[in-house]
Amino acid sequence: AAGVAIAGHMTQSQLLFALADFGFMVNLFNLLPLGSMDGGRIAGALSPWMNVAGLGAGSALALSGAIHNPIFYLILLAGGWETFQRFYNPGAIPPNYYRITPTQRGMIGLGYVGSLALAMDVNERFKKPPEVLIRERDAEM
């Protein structure tokens, strides 16, 4: 997504900005703190309770109808099972999984949210709505 955004900035292509935005949204979805997705792994390293929060957020998305994809429901079920295992079968988790320093936790949390939010913000500043593109095209004629 970042490479497509850079190409969009170099060419001022609104299509590339839109594709980069889609890529950032897919990455953001992957960072939901659920199960075996990247966000679930990161959240699990921060605290086992982060996965419980992820299940709550995922359940809210599913129950509100915001996400209708059956694959998401499977991811939610797998995340629920993995979270259950963290609390009721702690032997399944590597022994040093939660042994990280507070500084490491802070860096992981900052990297978890900050880099993607920054990339999406920069991309959003250069996107143009269709109405603006039509006006610009008409002005060139």
Describe the overall structure.
With 141 residues, the chain is an all-alpha fold. The chain is 77% helix and 0% strand. It has helices spanning 2-11, 14-30, 38-46, 48-64, 70-88, 102-126, 130-140. Helix 2 packs antiparallel against helix 6, helix 3 (38-46) packs antiparallel against helix 6 (102-126) and helix 4 (48-64) runs antiparallel to helix 5 (70-88). The radius of gyration is 19 Å and the shape is elongated. The two termini are 33 Å apart. The model has no long low-confidence stretch (mean pLDDT 81).
Number of strands: 0
The chain-level structural class is mainly alpha
Largest sheet data:
none
Q: Give the helix tally.
A: 7
The secondary-structure element order is: HHHHHHH
Overall pLDDT: 81
Q: How far from one another are the termini?
A: 33 Å
Q: Roughly how much helix do the residues carry, as a percent range? A: over 70%
Radius of gyration: 19 Å
The oligomeric state is single chain
Low-confidence stretches: none
Strand content: under 5%
What overall form do the CA principal axes indicate? elongated
